[in-house]
Amino acid sequence: MAYKFALQSEVTEANKWCLEVLHGVQKELRSYFTFDIRLIGSGEKKLVTQNGNEPFDLDYNLILQRDKQDLLNNPKRIKGLFRQAFDVVLEDKLDGYNNYDQHVSDSSSVITIKILYDNRLDFSFDVAIIVEANDGFFYLLKNDKTSNRYLWNQVKSSKNYFTRYQSLKENGQFEQFKDNYLDLKNRHLRKNDGVKSFSIFLETLNLFCKESK
Fold first, then answer.
1. Which of 117, 163, 168, 211 makes an SS bond possible with 173, Cβ 3.0 to 4.6 Å?
2. Any bridge partners for residue 62, and if so which?
3. Distance between CA 191 and CA 199 in Å, rounded?
4. CA 188, CA 158: separation in Å to the nearest integer?
């Protein structure tokens, strides 16, 4: 199989549902943080892909803005708070929906939310917790399972990525960028290397900006 771009109508519907969940998490954690929600590499929701006819998933960055209780030096605590908030919000969200269940898991770099119907995967979305540092780079909250530590890991080539991305769209280069992104994502699929969408987005952005100079 190969990646293709998902139908915009289906992406819009799924994104609306996810945003309701994420806004619920914002309310649960309002005494701890404020954060911005970004659908990764969305390009106005035109970069979401799916492998053949399998369900597509969505990827979000939650970019911490205000740390109200000085927890940035305790990333394990932050990850735990977010996981608990997702459990609470999803339990309420799915209440009354027969045969639906949720599973919230802590992978190395994201929180993965899986929505199950009759114990089969119906939909999923990944959430990365990120902070932008004074050096202009983004730092990802990571669970380093080899050392059993939680830490902030610099996201390679992420410096000022949003500004660069906006610039190429304003220059009318989005369609070309979109084609490059899909091509690169399929190359990673053939390698079966498990590289996440955000990393592929940044890889495409950096290659594109380099070639455009």
1. 168
2. 37, 129
3. 15
4. 19
Question: How does pLDDT run across 10-63, given as a tens digit for each residue?
Answer: 888 889 999 999 999 999 999 999 999 988 755 455 778 888 878 888 889 999
Give the integer Cα–Cα distance in Å for 50 and 1: 10
- Domains of the chain, by residue range, sit at 3-157
Q: Which CATH architecture has domain 3-157?
A: 2-Layer Sandwich (3.30)
The phi-psi region of residue 152 (left if phi > 0; otherwise alpha if psi is between -120 and 50; otherwise beta) is: beta
- Rounded to an integer, what distance in angstroms lies between the CA atom of residue 110 and that of residue 62? 10
- Model confidence, pTM: 0.79
Tokens 């899909």: give the residue. 182
Q: How far apart are CA 134 and CA 153, in angstroms?
A: 14
State how far the alpha carbon of 151 is from the alpha carbons of 129, 148, 205, in Å.
Answer: 11, 10, 26
- Sequential DSSP letters for 99-118: TEEEEEEE-SS-EEEEEEET
HSE-CB of 79 using CA atoms within 13 angstroms? 23
DSSP-assigned beta bridge partners for residue 126: 59, 112
Query: Rounded to an integer, what distance in angstroms lies between the CA atom of residue 152 and that of residue 53?
Result: 36
pLDDT of residue 164: 85
In angstroms, the CA 181 to CA 167 distance is 16
Residue ranges of the alpha helices (H) in the chain? 8-28, 75-93, 161-170, 174-191, 197-212
